[in-house]
Design goal:
191 residues, mainly beta, four-stranded antiparallel β-sheet, 21 strands
Length: 191
């Protein structure tokens, strides 16, 4: 895997650890699975639970989560009993697990999903857990350059557009496919 914060994840004999840029093992392969470092912490799996280690390899948040994602903007998405919520770097739950889906924070907002199967809708919360953009969308991506790609409609009729951080539609949902903005541009397709 690629380097992140000067370390890369490596697998040796069915266990995962970390190497530095010289290729030296700096955190012994001991984890069932491991992800890249982000904000000085990495997600690791011990037995069937996920937790977090620091760059010395010490467990700083005990493996206790069904699933976990990397830290972004000082919060990480974790799954507890089939629901997603958010923890801080001390491991404290700061937004209760209540969402059917959740993405990492980006530009101070996180995309969350509520409802089941065909009724699943996406909206956005702030870092206090307050809903700031109601779950109205069939698809949604994280904010990038103050815009988020959203999808409306069902299956073959799904169309993508873009909203701002107030939920206002900035680019109408006209596209059959679309990606997030990067460097002022976004790839979007019709037909």
């Amino acid at each position: 895997k690629s380097f992140s914060q000067d370390l890369a994840v490596v697998q040796v004999r069915q266990k995962w650890g970390y190497i530095d840029k010289s290729g030296q093992i700096v955190i012994e392969p001991q984890f069932n699975q491991a992800k890249s470092f982000s904000q000085s912490l990495a997600v690791v799996q011990v037995r069937q639970k996920w937790g977090y280690i620091d760059k010395s390899g010490q467990i700083v948040i005990e493996p206790q989560f069904n699933q976990a994602k990397s830290f972004s903007q000082d919060l990480a998405v974790v799954q507890v009993r089939q629901k997603w919520g958010y923890i801080d770097k001390s491991g404290q739950i700061v937004i209760e697990p209540q969402f059917n889906q959740a993405k990492s924070f980006s530009q101070s907002l996180a995309c969350i999903g509520v409802g089941e199967n065909a009724d699943l809708k996406y909206g956005y919360i702030d870092k206090t857990g307050q809903m700031v953009i109601d779950p109205l969308f069939n698809q949604a991506k994280s904010f990038s350059q103050s815009l988020a790609c959203i999808g409306v409609g069902e299956n073959a009729d799904l169309k993508y557009g873009y909203i701002d951080k107030t939920g206002q539609v900035i680019i109408d949902p006209l596209f059959n496919s679309a990606r997030s903005f990067s460097e002022g541009l976004a790839c979007a397709g019709v037909g």
